[in-house]
Design brief:
This protein has 5 helices and 9 strands, in the order αααααβββββββββ. By secondary structure, it is α+β, with helices and mostly antiparallel strands. A 6-stranded antiparallel sheet has the order 1-2-3-9-4-7, with no helix packed on it. A 3-stranded antiparallel sheet has the order 6-5-8, with no helix packed on it. Pfam families: Cupin_2, HTH_3.
Length: about 180
Amino acid sequence: MNIGSSIRAIRKRKNVTIMQICEETGLSQGFMSQVENNKTSPSIATLESIAKALKVPLAYLLLRQEERMQIVRKDERRISKSGVERLKVEHLGSTPNVRMMIVEIPPGASTGDAPHAHEGEEVHLVLQGKIYAEQGEDNAEFGEGDSFSWNACVPHLVKNISQETAIVLISVYTEKEQSNPYL
């Protein structure tokens, strides 16, 4: 964890000098320099006073880089194909336990020949088109603006029943990070 590097980056971005931090916290310049160069590990109380001086939440200083905001610009999305019908999947973003994607389902296409199951919980929002969804004994048709959710460990299937490409926003929660994002 590079807390010191984070402190320095925030301080510089906010145009705050080490001296200003020291005046507000009562810490010495030498100590602050050691903190920013990751040569000493400050106590939580000290970090709290530094965070207050920088006007940032203490929790933000404790985040690892991969836990901070991740940005995916529209033209930088990772695109993959999924299932036997090679549905287009645009990966919008993820955390270790949640993935969000937009799936394009051509007219008549589905997530497979038969219902399938996998770990996780899913929430779907139909952005365009009309789809049929089935999970176990439950099934329904959904149009633009409709949403549904399910535990993905029960076999399920999604099929486009319209004459236009269906577009579905899907959020998947899993207990552990999945290496293969799919429906």
